[in-house]
Amino acid sequence: MTASTVKSTAISDAEAVPVTLAAGGTRGNKARVFTATIEAATTSLDEVGDVIKMLRVPSRLRIQSVVIFNDDLDSHATPTLAADVGIFNAATGTVKDADALASAITTLQAANTAGVEIMFEAHDIADIGKTAWELAGYTTDPGVELDIGLTITTQAATAAAGTISMRIIGSNDQ
Question: What residues does 164 pair with on adjacent strands?
């Protein structure tokens, strides 16, 4: 049997004659890192529908990574706290897709200092590098900034105030 060589779209595009312009992020665009920390009160974790908005990103940001760090925010022996991670239209303040990035994650139930990558909880790994507006479900770029936030889907059994930090890494086409 003969060994084979396969090429990603990024390599095939670079070798094409003429060269095909590759999607942003595949040819070494500068990374942009967004970070935020919030001290969540127990009243932000004790009702279904509570929203914690964490970061504002450009709609054209090609997202590669979304990581959450947190204290133990549900101190009960059998914690129940769960949250969606979604995308909100910053201009209107309304949710576009409440679980665009993750659905009913339970990472907030225990201290998490190493960070949990959630980018692919709701998306296929082939979605790496899609724009924030695509991940939110828009059919075209709305041209506004987008907020990334958590929506409580199951309230904490025993809510505990604590820290939540989020880091998003992405790149823009320009």
Answer: 38, 70
Domain ranges of the chain: 32-171
Contact between 13 and 19 (Cβ < 8 Å): yes
Q: pLDDT digit string (tens) for 142-166? A: 999 999 999 999 999 999 999 999 9
Asked if residue 133 has pLDDT above 90, the reply is yes
CA distance 117 to 162: 20
Q: Tell me the three state secondary structure of residue 133.
A: helix
As given in the structure block, the two tokens for residue 77 are 């022996």
pLDDT recorded at residue 15 = 73
pTM of the model: 0.83
Q: Which of 168, 167, 158, 150 is nearest to 72 (CA)?
A: 158
- Determine the CATH number of domain 32-171: 2.60.120
Q: CA-to-CA distance for 31 and 20, rounded, in angstroms?
A: 22
d(CA 36, CA 173): 23
